[in-house]
């Protein structure tokens, strides 16, 4: 049976972007079991420890309900370089616990810290974040990401980023790349475009 996961940032005891996580979980479960009753995600976060640290909550679930919850202090990865890799068959439309394809691509990063995945001739995501590119005036995010992350949705809703089709050849026209996800805010992790290695 498919298992899925919501990774939720908790700061000051408050879940961040919880409605977007709730909506994604509801949509995922409804896709695989259309008549399934919704789960209250908030209920499963009540055991979160009181802490001034950024807490990573991980809720594993399937169509029958929540299977596991865990909480731990978040430790940000040190990402300084990205390696372009290509996979035209990868599918991570649903945030699954099965990361086999992503983990395989990560082994192709050579001397870089992380991969930047190309599918169908277009930039998508890294193995664990959405991305956006700065052209000197605005931040553009790939229109066809592997996963429509909750932070990506929030940034689009608040007009902080715009969607665009971005090819590997067009990367050089940008100045910076930003990596973000539910745990990493916009502008917390930015790199110069020169830090992206081509195929």
Task: Detail the topology: elements first, then pairings.
Layout: E1 4-11, E2 14-15, H1 18-32, E3 55-62, E4 65-73, E5 82-86, H2 100-106, E6 114-119, E7 122-126, E8 130-134, E9 139-142, H3 150-157, E10 162-164, E11 176-180, E12 190-192, E13 196-197
Parallel strand pairs: 5-6, 5-13, 9-10
Antiparallel strand pairs: 1-2, 1-3, 3-4, 6-7, 8-9, 8-11, 11-12
User: How many distinct beta strands?
Assistant: 13
Query: What is the total number of structural domains?
Result: 2
Provide the CATH topology of the largest domain. Answer: D-amino Acid Aminotransferase, Chain A, domain 2
Low-confidence stretches: none
Major beta sheet summary: 5 strands, mixed
- Count of helices? 3
- Overall, the morphology is globular
CATH class of the largest domain, please?
A: Alpha Beta
CATH superfamily of the largest domain: D-amino Acid Aminotransferase, subunit A, domain 2
Q: What is the alpha-carbon Rg in Å?
A: 17 Å
| Structural category | alpha+beta
Strand content: 25-35%
Q: What percent of the residues sit in helical stretches (DSSP H or I)?
A: 10-25%
C-alpha termini separation: 36 Å
Organism: Hoylesella shahii DSM 15611 = JCM 12083
Protein name: 4-amino-4-deoxychorismate lyase
Pfam families: Aminotran_4
GO molecular function, one term: lyase activity
Please tell me about this protein's structure.
With 199 residues, this protein is of the alpha+beta class. The protein has 2 domains: 4-73, Aminotransferase class 4, branched-chain amino acid transferase, N-terminal domain (D-amino Acid Aminotransferase, Chain A, domain 1, 2-Layer Sandwich), CATH 3.30.470.10; 82-197, D-amino Acid Aminotransferase, subunit A, domain 2 (D-amino Acid Aminotransferase, Chain A, domain 2), CATH 3.20.10.10. The protein has 3 helices and 13 strands. The chain has helices spanning 18-32, 100-106, 150-157; strands at residues 4-11, 14-15, 55-62, 65-73, 82-86, 114-119, 122-126, 130-134, 139-142, 162-164, 176-180, 190-192, 196-197. The strands form 3 sheets. Strands 10-9-8-11-12 form a 5-stranded mixed sheet, with helices on one face. A 4-stranded antiparallel sheet has the order 2-1-3-4. A 4-stranded mixed sheet has the order 7-6-5-13, with no helix packed on it. A hairpin with a 2-residue loop joins strand 6 and strand 7 (122-126). Keywords: Lyase.
């Amino acid at each position: 049976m498919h298992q899925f996961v919501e990774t939720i940032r908790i700061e000051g005891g408050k879940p961040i972007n919880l409605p977007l996580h709730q909506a994604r979980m509801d949509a995922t479960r409804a896709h695989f079991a259309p008549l399934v009753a919704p789960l209250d995600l908030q209920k499963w976060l009540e055991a979160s420890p009181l802490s001034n640290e950024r807490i990573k909550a991980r809720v594993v679930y399937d169509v029958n309900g929540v299977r596991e919850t865990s909480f731990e202090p978040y430790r940000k990865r040190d990402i300084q370089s990205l390696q372009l890799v290509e996979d035209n068959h990868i599918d991570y439309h649903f945030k699954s616990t099965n990361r086999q394809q992503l983990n395989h691509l990560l082994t192709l990063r050579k001397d870089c810290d992380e991969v930047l995945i190309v599918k169908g001739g277009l930039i998508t995501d890294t193995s664990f974040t959405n991305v956006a590119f700065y052209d000197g005036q605005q931040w553009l995010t790939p229109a066809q990401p592997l996963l429509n992350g909750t932070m990506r949705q929030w940034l689009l809703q608040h007009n902080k980023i715009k969607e665009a089709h971005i090819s590997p050849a067009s990367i050089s026209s940008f100045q910076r790349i930003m990596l973000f996800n539910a745990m990493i805010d916009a502008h917390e992790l930015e790199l110069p475009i020169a830090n992206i290695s081509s195929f």
